[in-house]
Design a protein that fits this description.
The chain has about 400 residues and is of the alpha+beta class. Helices cover about 30% and strands about 15% of the residues. The strands form six sheets. Strands 1, 2, 3, 4, 13, 14 and 15 form a seven-stranded antiparallel β-sheet that branches. A hairpin with a 3-residue loop joins β13 (about 345-350) and β14 (about 355-360). α3 (about 75-85) packs parallel to α6 (about 165-180), α3 crosses α7 (about 180-195) and α5 crosses α6. It starts with a helix and ends with a strand.
């Protein structure tokens, strides 16, 4: 086991010493390879820790500026872009997607609204037609293919996790409405103004900072995995089998995928950058004199738009706002099958256990990233232990099986 006393670096306000303790335990007891955690409280950074290995084979250590692929934690960054456009009146939540993207109306999708897309209700959770190798690296191809398909359920009548298609839908709405790719919009409107080290589409000169990703074995007890094994012809199985081989480890760690814009599953960030992107949303929509959105937008970000005791795709309870996740599942479901936050917190977890979120009640912004991606679709013990320690530090208690309350 690694000597965390020497390998964990950074700063931690004494009030959050338990966060540092849990972060060390992740390495000594929970199989962590390399990771970082960052917390803002009242717009001030109070935890900024990193440690372990960015690459296990070479022994390269995780540095202050090491970045990692955060899979679906990227969805929160994409949602921020949409909310900026909503706030400015450039797009409308209840407008049909085809208002901005005319080709999207094909196959009776003319009534699908921006809000249905953002809340996983559009009925386009997967690409139904087989995708060729590397399809998700070709934006124009993957977007056009999705626009041509028919929904697999009546839009707005149910919801199911749009694991990768969500980003393509949101990204193309941004491109049609602004003329900018979503990665460019993210840099212009969020990353650069707020000094947030977050990327959707990484330039080559930043590649050296990316940690090598490692994947755990699938959890055979996961409801999603069991459904997949029992019904291989089930539509949700295509989330795993029809991605153009995007989930192969050699693809995940490739320069081509890092450079591609995959707004639902391809973001590359530092923990500090992701927490800083959420920090304005833990306050009034602004940070250090720079405004992301007007305060009136925050209820829209945190209010539940779709919820179910059994997500059509993930097969566990899920709750979504416009573009973000809230608390869902329960600890009793096991590792990777829940996300336990504050009642009004919103953000997005990523496959393997990363997360970024804001909680305006607790006035915290949080991020945790790592390069060893565990099983399941939510948080595992590494990330949840850090979230729990943060909430305890600010005076919250757990209302098992619900959420953290003051």
């Amino acid at each position: 086991m690694m000597d965390t006393g020497e390998r964990v670096s950074g700063e931690c306000d004494p009030r959050f010493e338990a966060v540092k303790s849990e972060f060390k335990r992740n390495f000594t007891e929970r199989g962590e390879i390399g990771a970082a955690v960052c917390v803002y409280l009242d717009g001030r950074k109070v935890v900024d820790l990193w440690g372990g290995q960015a690459d296990r084979e070479t022994g390269k250590t995780w540095q202050e500026d090491t970045m990692a692929v955060v899979f679906s934690s990227t969805k929160g960054l994409a949602a921020m872009c949409l909310h900026i456009l909503i706030d400015r009146g450039i797009i409308e939540v209840d407008a049909p997607v085809c208002k901005y993207w005319p080709e999207f109306a094909a196959n009776e999708k003319d009534a699908i609204t921006v809000g249905m897309v953002m809340s996983h209700q559009a009925g386009l959770p997967v690409w139904q037609e087989s995708l060729p190798e590397g399809a998700l690296l070709d934006w124009d191809f993957s977007a056009a293919r999705l626009a041509a398909e028919a929904p697999v359920w009546e839009p707005g009548e149910q919801h199911g996790y749009h694991a990768v298609t969500l980003g393509t839908l949101e990204g193309e709405i941004v491109r049609r409405a602004t003329g900018m790719k979503i990665g460019q919009f993210l840099r212009k409107e969020i990353a650069e103004p707020f000094g947030a080290d977050v990327w959707i589409g990484l330039p080559e000169n930043e590649e050296h900072r990316v940690a090598t990703a490692y994947m755990d074995e699938p959890n055979p007890n996961s409801p999603l995995f069991r459904k997949f094994m029992e019904e291989p012809g089930w539509i949700g199985a295509k989330m795993m089998t029809n991605s153009g081989n995007d989930m192969a480890l050699e693809i995940i760690n490739s320069r081509a995928r890092h450079a591609a814009e995959i707004p639902a599953a391809g973001g590359i960030v530092t923990a500090r950058g992701l927490a800083r992107a959420y920090a304005p949303l833990s306050l009034d929509g602004s940070l250090d004199g720079q405004r992301m959105v007007r305060e009136r937008m925050l209820p829209l970000m945190r209010t539940t738009r779709s919820a179910s005791s059994c997500d059509t795709i993930l097969r566990v309870p899920t709750t979504f706002t416009l573009g973000f996740s809230k608390t869902w599942g329960a600890r009793s479901l096991g590792q990777g099958e829940h996300v336990i936050l504050g009642e009004h917190a919103f953000g997005t977890p990523g496959m393997g256990g990363s997360i970024g979120f804001a909680d305006g009640d607790a006035r915290i912004a949080f991020s945790y990233i790592m390069n060893f991606h565990g099983p399941g679709v939510g948080l595992n013990d590494r990330g949840q232990s850090l979230v729990d320690a943060v909430y305890r530090a600010v005076g919250y208690t757990s209302s098992e099986p619900g959420f953290w309350v003051r």
